[in-house]
Amino acid sequence: MRSPERHECRLSNGRVLSFVRSGAEASPALVLIHGFPSSARTFREVIPALSEVAQVIVPDMPGFGQSETLPAPTFSAFADSICELLDRLGIGPRYLYLHDFGAPVGLEIAMRAPEKVLGLIIQNANAHASGQGPNWAETQAFWRAPSPENEAAATAHLTFAGTRDQYIAGVPEDVAARIPAERWEEDWAIMQLPGRMETQRALIADYGKYVSRFPAIAAYLSQYQPEALMIWGRHDAFFDLAETLSWMEALPRMEAHILDGGHFLLETHAPVAARLMADFIARGRITTAL
To answer: Comparing C-alpha atoms, which of 47, 45, 46 is closest to residue 55?
Structure first.
C-alpha cells in the first residue's frame, strides 16, 4: 500500500505538474480533479479511505496549488497535462472525479478515451445549461461579447471575498461554521503568485467554450452511459440544484445523493462522501470480476 505522497512530473511542455499519489498500484485507478480556487488539498480528508480500494492520483491543475502555470491556460490544455501524467504513470482504466473546473477537464479526458472510463463521480459539477442560474448572467454576457467592461463584471469574484464565498456563500450558518478560514486564505495566497490570476481570467473565458460543448457531452453520456455516482451539496450558490436532475436524466442508472452541504462538499461531509465513493468503487470491482 502506497501512503499519500506528493510528487512532481515535468511535462513535455517543460512545466511542472504537482500531484499526490496513494494506494496500491494493483487497485483500480481513481483520478480526483479539483475545482476553483483550490488544489489537491480539496481531497485531503478522503484520500486515506479511498486508498483502501483504489490507486488515487490527485493532480494540482496547472496554475493551482503547487503546479506551474501554462503560457496559454485552457481546459483542453489541462486535460493534455493530466493525460500525459497518467500515461507517464502507466494508468489505464480509471474512475474520474468531476468537481467545478474539474468537470471540463475530466469530461474531456473521458471523451478522449471512453473505453478507459470505469466510472464518473460527480460532485457539484456542471455539464448542462440547467446548472447556470441567475448568478451566471454577467459571465454569459462576457462570453457573448468579450469587451473589457464585460470581462471586468465576469471576473469581479476574483477577490479575497469572492474566494471565501466559494466555500460559504449560500451555506447554512451551522454548516459554514465547520469550514475554517484557512481554507480560502490559502487559496487566496496562492492566487497572488505570478501568473495565477491570469490563469483564472483565462479559464473564465474558456469556460464559455466548454459550455458550447454541452451537446457533445450529452451525446457522449447518451452513447456510453458510464457508471456514475453523484454526491452533491444542495446549498451550492453557483451551480443550480436543477443540474442534478439533468445529470439523472442523462444517466438514469446513476446513484445520486444530495447532501446538506455547499459547493465545497468535502469540507463538511468528507466521511460520508468517502464511504459512498469507496462503496461505489468496491462494487465496480465486484462487477468487473464477475
So the answer is: 47
